[in-house]
Every structure is written in structure tokens, then in C-alpha cells.
Amino acid sequence: MERAMLGVYLRDQIRNEEIRRRTGVTDIAQRVTKLKWKWAGHIARRTDGRWGSKVLEWRPCNANSLQAIFVQQWTSIG
């Protein structure tokens, strides 16, 4: 759609970044990624003890035995 706005064709071999610079439209995928990381940082900085922070910091108490179980399951499949 941006190419149509500028009258640019694929055969002109103009990069998408250049087209976005010309139109001033932001890339939605980059915007979503930036917002997700911003939100994750917000959750990580909270100190009020809500479940979001607890989930980010959670570690299973028997992680080594769980890892061994998963390895055994995958090796028995192959």
C-alpha cells in the first residue's frame, strides 16, 4: 500500500525502510516489539509483590529432576 501511495514498483528495487522513511509510516512489527519489551520492563520493575513479578522470577524447586525427565522422554521417542 505504501508503494502504491508513492507510485513505486518492486522492479524499482527500493527498500521498505526507504519507503517508510518517505511516507512517515512506522513499521507495525517493530512498534509491537518495542511496546512488548517496554511492558516487560514495567512488570519487572514492580516491587508490590503482584503475581506478574512473581511469575517472572519463578524457578521450580526441582528443576534438575524435571530436566532429566524431559531428556528421558525425548530420548525414548527417538
What can you tell me about this protein's structure?
This protein is mainly α and about 80 residues long. The chain has one domain (about 1-75). Helix content is about 70%, strand content about 0%.
Low-pLDDT sequence parts: none
Give the tally of β-strands. 0
Average residue-wise pLDDT: 79
Q: What is the C-alpha radius of gyration, as a whole number of Å?
A: 23 Å
Count of DSSP H/I helices? 5
- Outline, from the CA principal axes? elongated
For the sheet with most strands, the description reads: none
* Count of structural domains: 1
Helix content: 55-70%
Name the structural class: mainly alpha
Strand share of the residues?
Answer: under 5%
Roughly how many Å apart are the termini? Answer: 47 Å
Elements, N to C (H/E): HHHHH
Organism: Pararge aegeria aegeria
Protein name: Jg5212 protein
